[in-house]
Amino acid sequence: MKTLIKNGTVVNATGVAAADVLIDGETIVAVTAPGSHLLGFNLEQNVDRVIDAHGKYVIPGGIDAHTHMEMPFGGTQASDTFETGTRAAAWGGTTSIVDFVVQYAGENVLDQYAKWHEKAAGNCAIDYGFHQILSDVQDSSLTAMDELVREGVSSFKLFMAYKGVFLSDDGQIVKAMQRSAENGSMMMMHAENGSVIDLLVQQSIARGDTAPYFHGITRPWQAEAEATHRAIMLADLTGAPLYIVHVSAKQAVEHIAAARDRGKNVFGETCPQYLYLSLEEQLGAPGFEGAKWVCSTPLRARAEGHQDHMWQSLRTNDLQMVSTDHCPFCMKGQKELGIGDFSKIPNGIGSVEHRMDLLYQGVVDGQISLSRWVEVCSTTPARMFGMYGKKGVIQPGADADVVIYDPNGHTSISVDTHHMNMDYSAWEGFEIDGHVDTVLSRGRVIIDDNQYHGSKGDGEFIKRGLSQYLI
Question: pLDDT, tens digit, for every residue of 449-463?
């Protein structure tokens, strides 16, 4: 089936231009001047479907490179399945995710990888890949890293927090980084000083400071900045590339920026919550309401300027991309596990449906440019994690993952209208000056005219290569 998207404004990371986009089957085959002819044929007369994108942006589908569908955590699991979560992502203009395979201490890495394939296969509305969490770095883990790189899983995540659950000590981190330096994979890091956090949590609860607000107080920016610096030093020692996930503190960004200024393969992502939300306004909400926004790293104090610094860092490329860390939990029966003890609140916010809109609002507000929006939401994730050329760009040969975005449209975010499997919205009341109109996944229209036209099983596994950013 041939599809022509005509009269639109194509936005890539490299620039903006009026162009028509011709799709044949699952692939973009031509990007031409508006109304042009190709090989002597009138394009509009030789296609099966024409989509008029007049006045709208034609952009590569979003890539959310940090999601946790069906993730077990704190005695429960993330409320979005691969089916519900990827469908919600599609509604928001995201056409690929990279989810995390979870390994707890004592579990076999490759067995867990197989389990995640079983969860996702035949259920995803959009294409999906995997990162692998390593929480028990043994010799078998290092062997599994090599095997997984051959399988198209070229990135591995370690934790400096969550003792007894995910935490790796510095020796284990160095062993994994040494193997990463050898096989070319990307080492991802949850950078918080877990020992310090555990102590502060114990002291807070002993004082009777148990409200959700104290989740943020007991995970101070110093714990994030220290761990970020330590991770950078260990990566420097081993020669491993390093990607710091969910950066929320401006002081952590400063360490990343300094390493990059020294020419190191160090990268960082932030998330929408760290651009818009705050310790005072959300975590400090009355009663138990702040539980809605408990995530780690935590929301930071607006008075300290962290949110403004995140936007600035996206403009200056001190941070390279924006993912969601989508790990949703309902209030009823899930977040409520932490009533009277904030340390038992499942950590996570649901945002996979809203990332493209929230970042576009940054374009409207003058925080980032139109091309930078596409770069941080689509192109850089594709390059960072070995998908570029097929994903992350509107060009011949790329997968026809295309979003038609209306800058004159409007989106109101609410639990009443979102498609994530959650009983509340962390973004309730946010108004977006733009709207996702049409979404194509490998040439198939899956969102159009406020209707979902896809189905579970449409998505395919993405076998990823190595990062294109390594020097």
Answer: 999 999 999 999 999
Which amino acid would we find at residue 231?
A
pTM: 0.97
Are residues 299 and 446 both part of a single domain? no
Residue 424 lies in a domain: no
CA angle 93, 99, 100 (to 5 degrees): 160
Q: Which of 298, 36, 122, 13 is nearest to 22 (CA)?
A: 36
Residue 415, Cβ density class (10 Å: 0-12 exposed, 13-18 middle, ≥19 buried): middle
* Radius of gyration for the alpha carbons in the chain, expressed in angstroms and rounded: 21
Q: Verify that 215 and 128 share a domain, yes or no.
A: yes
Range of the domain at 31: 2-59+393-407+432-452
Query: Based on the structure, what is the number of domains in the chain?
Result: 2
pLDDT, tens digit (0-9, with 9 covering 90-100), for 230-262: 999 999 999 999 999 999 999 999 999 999 999
The span from the CA of 351 to the CA of 273, in Å, is 8
Question: In CATH, what number is assigned to the domain containing residue 20?
Answer: 2.30.40.10
Cα separation, 291 vs 277, whole angstroms? 13
Measured CA to CA, the distance from residue 246 to residue 191 in angstroms comes to: 9
